[in-house]
Amino acid sequence: MSIVIKTPEEIEKMRVACRLAAEVLDYIEPFVVPGVTTGELDRLCHDYMVNVQDTIPAPLDYAPPGYTPYPKSICTSVNHQVCHGVPGEKALKKGDIVNLDITVIKDGFHGDTSRMFLVGGESACSIVARRLTRITYECMWLGIAAVRPGGRLGDIGAAIQKHAEGNGFSVVREFCGHGIGRKFHEEPQVLHYGKAGTGPTLEPGMIFTIEPMINAGKAAISELPDGWTIVT
């Protein structure tokens, strides 16, 4: 599959979809408190997307090859969960860190974003948790700063890897950013590690996600029996 170059009209539709996805995160933020379950956060986000925004929750029933349909409308990854955490009856505790991953579909285009929340506030979380979230956020912005016409895809991963490993953390290899548009996952695969000056040349009209997954320990991961949740 080749990289899809979006037209100016498609880019504007993508802007709308991405803004709506970000608005879901703004909406849910006050509800991310000790005692709330990840299932309740999913229900609130689902209702907001469907009934307020008139958007479609892209993860619900999404089934890429080799996977069973995803059963919820958002992903909630708590503490050692790296990505694709399935919402359920787990109640958040003070000091937890939780990533909420939101993807909506509006007028046929996907908007994909996520945000890390420190439950109970920054002071409630451990020094390691605070440092991990800060370095990961910095990695994301360093990756974004490497995006420019004429640059190479490998520039993004190289910038992220250098900062993460330079601060004593590791980069998850098995999951990466991705192209996005009419489809949830398109080319290219955006690795969060690699060598600068390698990979496809970046062109105007490319749209992709940069979503570094950084571990405090080793980069190794495993999959839970639900077939979705990835943990360290």
Labels describing this entry:
232 residues, alpha+beta, Creatine Amidinohydrolase, 4-stranded antiparallel beta sheet, 3-stranded antiparallel beta sheet, 4 helices, globular
- The DSSP helix count reads 4
Principal-axes shape call: globular
Helix content: 25-40%
N-to-C SSE series?
HHEEEEEHHEEEEEE
Number of strands: 11
CATH architecture verdict:
Alpha-Beta Complex
CATH C-level class is: Alpha Beta
What's the N-to-C terminus distance? 31 Å
Domain count, please report it.
Answer: 1
The poorly predicted ranges are none
CATH topology group: Creatine Amidinohydrolase
Please characterize this protein's 3D structure.
- The chain is an alpha+beta fold and 232 residues long.
- It has one domain (8-231): Alpha-Beta Complex (Creatine Amidinohydrolase), CATH 3.90.230.
- The protein is built from 4 helices and 11 strands.
- Strands 1, 2, 4 and 5 form a 4-stranded antiparallel beta sheet that branches. A 3-stranded antiparallel beta sheet has the order 3-11-10, with no helix packed on it.
- α1 packs across α2 and α3 (127-145) runs antiparallel to α4.
- The longest helix is centred in the first third of the chain and has 21 residues, at 8-28.
- It is globular, with a radius of gyration of 17 Å.
- The mean pLDDT is 98.
